[in-house]
Amino acid sequence: MVYDATIELQSPLSFMTAPPNIDDLKGTRFREPRNSPYKDAPAFMASLYYWWWAFLRRNTAYKRTCRQSGNGRLGWLYNDFGNVFGNDFLSWWRSHQLLFAEQNKAMPEEAGIGLNYWLDPRKPFNQIHEETKALHLRAHSLLKNNESTRASSARYPIYKNVSSHTLYKTLTLWDLHLYYPDMSKYDLGVKAGLKPNLMPETKYGERRTKQAMQVKAHNHRARTSIANQTSRYLRTARQYIENVGKGEFPKSVGR
User: d(Cα 189, Cα 169) in Å, to the nearest integer?
Assistant: First the structure.
């Protein structure tokens, strides 16, 4: 089901983590100040639901599906999320927030998991197989023994809590990597705001003294540390982007 029109809600919606619409937080368990990704960032960027939308926009298969008005490998996901490039985030959120809201009627503990899938016989078999495989993986994420999602009854539960600052840094590095594909991991990290703990060169530029050798070794370790951090961010970003195309976010395995 695609929520294409603004929905008039009969009662306030409940979410497992803070939604982006600030006015609705009054009188709830969510309190200010919020976890802002950077100084003076728009308030909605503190919500994990914003980052779900932002990472989905980086998924290549989903971009292609949006360009083809829902025809493509991720057409099953498009049926719920629609065209994430068609409008700004808050406009999209107002018509899609039910995807993340807790269900009013609790699911029985031993009940199965209902996932809708429309079989189009005109599609090639390998595409149908890919779509049903993605649904199968998502069903596993909703099983009661999955610690990260078992407390939520939402159609698309948050997989785990990650700070908006971390998600901002992860996506920033991913976008920089796409824009500067030949830039070194160290330079990418510095450009994204990672700060190496460099020592100043010796006053007279010596290279063979003990102090100069120590400075050189320290700075080499500092640059390597930034390059390694950048690589971890990029690996995580790649996994987030891949898994958000399966209806799971933010999901990564290892670093």
Answer: 10
